[in-house]
Design a protein that fits this description.
Length: about 120
């Protein structure tokens, strides 16, 4: 089964860390990602830029509006999006529970991925 793991971090904690500690933390996270890849569990990892560079597109009263920043106010920042192959959601939780980001300020939201082909078939596309 395919899962998407959304990684959230407390930016204040990361900002308070000395730069060499941040680099060590990043290296540790990348090493665990490589370990998951080697085991055939990771099919993709994307790192999101800061919300300072985001645009939000909405339609309000029939008119498209574009604003700077994110549409959601959060106390944590969303950084990595990891596509994970696991047998079950329990297995996905087990894999992500070992992620070193959990030691600092991170958390992962894990969601199963629906098959887009099933949705297309449902609507005849």
């Amino acid at each position: 089964m395919k899962f998407v793991c959304l990684g959230y971090f407390n930016q204040e904690i990361l900002d308070a860390m000395p730069q060499d500690e941040v680099y060590a933390f990043i290296a540790e996270c990348l090493a665990y990602g490589a370990e998951l890849e080697k085991g055939g569990h990771v099919t993709g990892i994307e790192l999101l830029q800061s919300t300072d560079y985001a645009k939000t597109v909405r339609k309000i009263n029939g008119k498209v509006e574009v604003t700077d920043g994110t549409a959601v106010v959060m106390d944590k920042v969303l950084v990595p999006i990891i596509t994970l192959e696991a047998e079950t959601i329990a297995h996905a939780v087990e894999l992500m529970a070992k992620h070193p980001a959990l030691e600092k300020s991170g958390s992962f939201e894990i969601r199963s991925v629906d098959d887009i082909n099933e949705m297309k078939a449902m609507v005849g596309k």
